[in-house]
Amino acid sequence: MTDTATPAADVLRDPRANELAVAGQWKLFWLRFRRHRLAVVSLIVVIALYLIAAFAQFIAPFDPNETNARFTYAPPQSVSLFYDGRFAPHVSGLEMTLNKDSMRREFAHDPDHPVFIDFLAPSEPYKLLGFLTVETRLVGIKNPKRGDSLYLFGADRLGRDIFSRVIYGAQISLSIGLVGVFLSLILGVTIGGISGFFGGFTDVVIQRIIELLRSIPTIPLWMGLAAAIPVGWPPLRTYFFITLIVSLIGWTALAREVRGKFLSMRNEDFVTAARLDGMGEIAIIFHHLVPSFISHIIATLTLAIPTMILAETALSFLGIGLQPPIISWGTLLQEAQNIRAVAQAPWLLFTPAAAIVIAVLALNFLGDGLRDAADPYGATS
């Protein structure tokens, strides 16, 4: 007698199929997400970016506001790993000459005067994470002498290290994305949930308000609100006001998505059971409806972070957002508005622009992977 296995029996004998059959929502979410290779790589990049922002004081070799008139517009110095046949990371020294025709400083690399790089180099005391007193930086100049320089990404018009300034700028630009998304999450879930759950007149009023906000051109609205910031405000207050500005429109898209989900789920059996059990309407929203599609909300918010970062960058670049001495990627790009400066020092444009591109692409790819994983039952084997 021939033993013929049915498809159901094959499923039962397949350990992976059994794992999927009993997996919860978050398990299915992770199994689907890890198959998206680009999203996994992007997750690693995003984590690395936020770690760099968190430990910027330790990673940056210099104080971002430290000036050096001797090395204004100094070019980037490439790192060499070996010297005289031994492992000794170093950069070639810079020799400055004055071009009497153009009256500009010109720099030439001097390989005969290497500047050696020191790891865990001593530095002036600073507060790491705001409370740890540290006197060490990740990299620095070994036995620094007068005339030594270490400009991995070049210097600006005041001789400030662009590499250090880009790292410090990540703190503002990346945190604005997180804070802005957090505010959008609160407004979007609350207002969208009320709109979709209660419906009727409440839904009509909320949707008309959302349509009104979405009909206003974004950039002119941001420019008008940013222009209202008093010039004398301290940097911290300005930072939070700019965060509120970039969050003002971001919540509307999430609110509409939450409304659509609630409209399709508010008459489900588990909602009716919760009502019969005596649970209030607001409790049903936050204890039953929102958790049922939290993975979709996470994916939507991840895709919204790049928009927040680009909004801050655009406002600061136009000169109506954050202003020096605050350091963000937008304020760094603002220094690249001068065509003559960019022609003389193109790294003023390319370095912060590259940081923005890497962050935005990584967050977008991560958001795509999360969005695909938010529907784990739609996965194919």
Key terms:
single chain; alpha+beta; 4-stranded antiparallel sheet; 15 helices; 59% helix; disordered N terminus
Can you lay out the helices and strands and say which pair or pack?
Elements: H1 7-13, H2 15-22, H3 25-33, H4 37-54, H5 56-59, E1 79-83, E2 86-99, E3 104-128, E4 132-141, H6 162-198, H7 200-215, H8 218-227, H9 235-265, H10 269-276, H11 281-292, H12 294-317, H13 329-334, H14 339-344, H15 347-373
Antiparallel strand pairs: 1-2, 2-3, 3-4
Helix pairs in contact: 3-15, 4-6, 4-15, 6-7, 6-9, 6-11, 6-12, 6-15, 7-9, 8-9, 9-12, 10-11, 12-15
Describe the structure.
With 381 residues, this protein is α+β, with helices and mostly antiparallel strands. Strands 1-2-3-4 form a four-stranded antiparallel beta sheet. The model is unreliable at 1-6 (pLDDT under 50). The protein has 15 helices and four strands. Helix 6 (162-198) crosses helix 12 (294-317), helix 6 packs parallel to helix 15 and helix 12 (294-317) runs antiparallel to helix 15. Strand 3 (104-128) and strand 4 (132-141) form a beta hairpin. It starts with 6 loop residues before the first helix and ends in an 8-residue tail after the last helix. The radius of gyration is 27 Å and the shape is elongated. 59% of the residues lie in helices and 14% in strands. The longest helix is centred in the middle third of the chain and has 37 residues, at 162-198.
